[in-house]
Amino acid sequence: FLVGDTRRIIGEAAERSCFICCKMGATITCCQTGCDRAFHLPCAPDGQCVTQYFGAYRSFCWEHRPQQALRPRPSQDNTCSICLDSVEDNISYKTMGCPACQDARFHRHCIQKLALHAGIDFRCPRCLNQEPFMTEMLTMGIRLSKRPPSWQSDREVGPSDQRHGRCDATTCLCPGGREHTEAHGPWQLRLCSSCAAEGIHQLCSSLGNSTCSWECSTC
Question: Which parts of the sequence belong to the PHD-type domain (predicted)?
Fold first, then answer.
């Protein structure tokens, strides 16, 4: 972005209210043509909004978010394949399923945590399918990590514990790009206080200067 473009985007965001918390400064808009809903990134889970962390980084409100089209389950085991707690009978924002085996069900927050820990080895926890499972999860707003699995002990594969250094806001306002960071000021990168696997510039997050911590939408 040029400086003029950045100022224009900041100005437009300042005039938009979040349809979830009703506060001003909503920087994310639903990409569905004709939809004027806007929201803050931290508010997205409460509003059941989806952001796709690939390609154009598109975001959707609760009404226009992508939906999974799965067949009826071969079994009636209504438990999460990851945490083994109960899940909803039907597919929803909070309850997802595997498009390959059509049987695995899991909570959104469980599959997101698995994706961040599994890294490049991310696959269905029941049938172990990677494709089309991985593509489906990306489409449904699950963020994937390109790092080796967190449980892998071989340090020769690469720095899996390297600090995240990229702004993951749907619309990054930094003139220097998503990977530009500064020690202080609007381009200081705040990492998620829970998983540290996502980050956001201070200005891109709509956080006040006094805010010391930030949580990503998946946490």
Answer: 1-65
